[in-house]
Amino acid sequence: MARHDALLRLHKTLTTRRDELLKRLGTDLEDLAHVKHSSGSGDPADAAFDSAGEELSSQLAELESRELAQIERAINQLKKGVYGQCEGCQMKIPVARLNVLPYSTLCIKCQREVEQDSNWLAERRGANWESLTDGTPGEDREVRLSDLEMDYSK
Ligand SMILES: [Zn+2]
């Protein structure tokens, strides 16, 4: 039952993360409102800066709401008991990977395929494939919110 226990832990992680995101999204939307509010100095440079900031805020909010949607989906899958199954090959996603990416719907192998060919999943979806051994988790090259935040300061 190790996997079952791990999934229970992940459920807690997911709901915590969801609450965090909901809070952050709320803050972003407040920032967005503030940016809108502070523009109107009449200076075209200021206006351009405001609109760039606005765009960044809405991009961040979009990224967060996308993550939120993935989390909600994972929580739903947990409730239905289908969580942790790879959409690409129907195999169980290793708990080690789920611990790193709790809302992942693909095993590492399938994730790599999708990164190389965005149509790959659509072609494979529903097909049953032989199980293949997984690589090490943590090799994932996911875009993380922290990466995005680093770009901000440039
Ligand atoms: Zn897979």
Count of discrete structural domains: 2
Strand fraction band? under 5%
Largest sheet: none
**Residue-averaged pLDDT, rounded?**
77
Using DSSP, what is the number of strands? Answer: 0
- Number of separate helices: 6
Which class of secondary structure composition applies to the elements? mainly alpha
The percent of residues in helical segments reads 55-70%
CA-atom Rg in angstroms: 19 Å
> Low-confidence spans: pLDDT under 50, at least 5 residues?
128-154
Order of helices and strands: HHHHHH
Named once each, the bound ligands are: zinc ion
- Which descriptor suits the 3D outline? elongated
N- and C-termini, Cα separation: 47 Å
Task: Describe the overall structure.
- With 154 residues, the protein is mainly alpha-helical.
- The protein has two domains: 83 residues; 67 residues, no CATH class.
- It has six helices and no strands.
- Helix 1 packs antiparallel against helix 2.
- It is elongated.
- The chain binds zinc ion.
- The site of zinc ion (ZN) has 8 residues, from helix 4.
Question: Notable features of this structure?
Answer:
single chain; binds zinc ion; 66% helix; mainly alpha; 154 residues
Task: Summarize, please.
The protein is mainly α. It has helices at residues 2-38, 44-80, 95-100, 108-116, 120-124, 145-152.
